[in-house]
Specification:
Length: about 400
């Protein structure tokens, strides 16, 4: 676990600097907000904080959510983030912005003036947490104005700020990275993928499909769930279809985002059947490749890698899309070698104004848990590779 800390040098730690002027409301009261307008006008792209995603995910994951919001001059919402209670390392009580494995991006929604809006949201969360609790801000874009503003607001409030899990995940930026990742591959690797496609075509016509119509997306998503359940995730019990509440939340979220034109399902198909499928969410100028599944009986043709190579040209066909976020775990063994662009991420942990010893104990416990998770993931990856080679 990478960890760096900044501790304020002065100030009364029990009194945050500046006026928060933020509202904390229950998710059930969200009907009082013009949330969908904020979804459409946010200058920060984050579909995981859009209305059609948040409510189903809270129900599916059993989270008691509240919303921290700030309003603009006209009284309409100018910023929003869902939050819930948690414990750092199962020890130190915290509030956390609701970013997680199914929502791996924690930047708040914000209209123009994102830095000031983010600072106002941060001050509101610190006020809600009180002097005895800290606040977690997971999966923030490192170096972004909103991220810097959150850290500055915390320091101005007399709170310590700790940076955790800084890493860069694969992404493709229009005008910076190769729009077609195949062009950036080493010649030998590019020829090998082309050979695999030719061999796959011996089984039937190979086609690429993009489904965007609201009525068609849920049908293709059911096919995706079946494909995922038939693979290693199904055997391990972590496929969404094996988790009824998660599957129900995913169906609702996908259908809800599709209804707003914000979900696309890409498929690499052989003879009409799916070889690989990719669920993508769209927010503003960013596409998020949320989940991928592939037919393991076709593993010798690398169908998942083939689809991830084809995804950027398909998504960039929409001129509004400027960036594609892989949503991948750190050091992903497949996508990191296919997409050369990177999106830097960091988790900010804002400590309490009081009970600092408990906070430090939480950090140590969290570090131990993080090491255990990384070790378990390494063993799982090794087991999957051994199974495929056998």
């Amino acid at each position: 676990m990478a960890m760096t800390a900044t501790v304020p040098s002065a100030g009364d730690p029990s009194r945050p600097a500046g006026r928060a002027d933020a509202e904390i409301i229950a998710l059930a009261a969200a009907a009082t907000l013009d949330w969908r307008t904020l979804d459409a006008t946010s200058a920060i792209d984050n579909p995981f904080f859009h209305a059609p995603f948040v409510a189903p995910s809270a129900e599916g994951l059993g989270a008691a959510l509240q919303l921290v919001t700030v309003r603009g001059p006209a009284g309409r919402p100018a910023g929003l983030a869902p939050v819930t209670a948690t414990r750092l390392g199962r020890v130190a009580p915290m509030l956390t912005v609701f970013a997680h494995d199914y929502a791996p991006f924690g930047m708040p929604l914000a209209t123009d003036g994102v830095a000031e809006t983010a600072a106002r949201l941060a001050r509101g969360l610190l006020d809600a947490a009180g002097p005895g609790r800290g606040v977690l801000f997971p999966f923030l874009e490192d170096g972004a104005p909103a991220t810097n503003a959150i850290a500055s607001a915390a320091l101005a409030a007399g709170r310590p700020v700790v940076r955790l899990a800084a890493h860069a995940r694969a992404a493709v930026h229009r005008g910076v990275d190769a729009t077609d990742p195949r062009e950036a591959l080493p010649t030998k690797k590019r020829k090998e993928y082309a050979r695999q496609i030719r061999r796959m075509a011996d089984l039937g016509p190979v086609t690429l499909e993009v489904v965007v119509e609201p009525g068609d997306v849920p049908v293709r998503f059911e096919e995706f769930l079946e494909l995922e359940a038939a693979g290693w995730k199904g055997k391990r019990g972590s496929a969404m279809a094996a988790l009824p509440k998660v599957a129900a939340f995913a169906r609702r979220a996908v259908a809800g985002l599709a209804g707003n034109g914000r979900c696309r399902i890409l498929s690499l198909r052989v003879g009409g059947r799916p070889a690989a499928m990719l669920v993508c969410f769209i927010a503003g100028g960013t596409a998020f490749t949320w989940k991928i599944a592939y037919d393991e009986s076709l593993a010798r043709f690398s169908p998942g890698a083939q689809l991830m190579l084809d995804a950027p040209p398909l998504l960039f066909a929409d001129p509004a899309i400027r960036r594609i976020d892989s949503c991948a775990a750190p050091n992903h063994p497949m996508i990191d070698h296919l997409w050369r662009g990177r999106l830097p991420l960091v988790t900010l942990v804002v400590g309490p104004a009081r009970r600092r010893a408990l906070f430090r104990a939480g950090l140590l416990s969290h570090a131990a848990e993080d090491r255990a998770r990384r070790l378990a993931r390494a063993w799982q990856n090794r087991g999957r590779r051994a199974t495929r080679s056998g």
